[in-house]
DNA sequence: AAGCATACCAACCGCGGAGGT
DNA sequence: GACCTCCGCGGTTGGTATGCT
């Protein structure tokens, strides 16, 4: 155990990343991968600590990152998942392809938490709504598949994500719960024009039900079979109850929260 | 137009877990 | 088993953009 030794701060750069640094980092990772974050900055010729590189890559430079506003489905999913998982942002992020834990955490603290607070008098409601931020520092070198602001659909996970999180089929397990949130009264989003690909939801719903194969929640430490036996670990517990909750929500179409 | 208040988000910090020696 | 190193996670913060007066 023990703490990671503090990054050698001497001579290492901190603060916002420049486009050039981004370019160097992306180019290096594309060529050599990121098997060793600690060694990476030296190899790439970056004056950053490995931690910083890793964060930059994961939260910003990864090609499969979805940028832009969160769709309502995504926000609903976050709320739902947060109810069940708590502040386990990485676990929540694993179920929202293209979103990072950091981003989800930010969204939670800036939007969703407030949404869930007891209804405020109008005078206490947020006074302004931010415009979507211009994509700053988006490195031109990144082979991004992103198409700008989110349009609403929660996309299936990429192969890379499947490898790293194995959440392919669970990514959208929240869909049933999310749809049950449709009646929630607290939405004030102006994004009323979102569209969800029906076939996508039906597929993912089907996957949720048919999870007796090994592709279910295994990444979280258990196989999420439809007839799972009693959970044996905390992680199993979590997944067990998660699934139970999802199924219950789906069946009863319970209003959430 | 200017100043202030607020919201947002990228990045940092520190901790704990995992795995190797 | 103890120690070390690395990685990943969650909490927090500081800079900046935006809205309001």
TrEMBL record:
Its main location: nucleus. InterPro entries: Homeodomain-like_sf (IPR009057), Myb_dom (IPR017930), Myb_TF_plants (IPR015495), SANT/Myb (IPR001005). The keyword Signal does not apply. Residues 110-191, 212-233 are annotated as: Disordered. One of its GO terms (biological process) is regulation of lignin biosynthetic process. Residues 9-61, 62-112 form the Myb-like domain. The keyword DNA-binding applies. It is found in: Nucleus. Keywords: DNA-binding, Nucleus, Repeat, Transcription, Transcription regulation. One of its GO terms (cellular component) is nucleus. Residues 164-180 have a biased composition (Low complexity). It comes from the Eukaryota. One of its GO terms (molecular function) is DNA-binding transcription factor activity. Residues 9-61, 62-116 form the HTH myb-type domain. SMART domains: SANT. This is Uncharacterized protein. It comes from Miscanthus lutarioriparius.
């Amino acid at each position: 155990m023990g703490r990671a030794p503090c990054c050698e701060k001497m001579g290492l750069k901190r603060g916002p990343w420049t486009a050039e640094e981004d370019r160097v980092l992306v180019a290096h990772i594309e060529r050599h991968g990121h098997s060793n974050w600690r060694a990476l900055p030296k190899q790439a010729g970056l004056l950053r600590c490995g931690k910083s590189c890793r964060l930059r890559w994961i939260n910003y430079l990864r090609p499969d990152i979805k940028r832009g506003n969160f769709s309502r489905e995504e926000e609903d999913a976050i709320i739902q998942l947060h109810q069940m998982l708590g502040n386990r942002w990485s676990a929540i992020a694993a179920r929202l392809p293209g979103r990072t834990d950091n981003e989800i955490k930010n969204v939670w603290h800036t939007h969703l938490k407030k949404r869930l607070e007891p209804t405020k008098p109008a005078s206490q409601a947020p006074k302004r709504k931010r415009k979507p931020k211009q994509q700053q520092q988006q490195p031109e070198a990144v082979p991004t598949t992103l198409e700008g602001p989110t349009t609403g659909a929660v996309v299936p996970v990429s192969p890379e994500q499947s490898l790293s999180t194995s959440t392919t089929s669970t990514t959208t397990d929240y869909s049933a719960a999310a749809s049950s949130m449709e009646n929630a009264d607290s939405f004030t989003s102006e994004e009323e024009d979102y569209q969800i690909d029906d076939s996508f939801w039906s597929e993912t719903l089907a996957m949720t039900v048919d999870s007796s194969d090994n592709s279910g929640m295994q990444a979280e430490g258990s196989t999420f079979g439809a007839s799972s036996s009693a959970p044996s670990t905390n992680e199993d517990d979590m997944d067990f109850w998660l699934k139970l909750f999802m199924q219950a929500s789906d069946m009863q179409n319970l209003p959430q929260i």
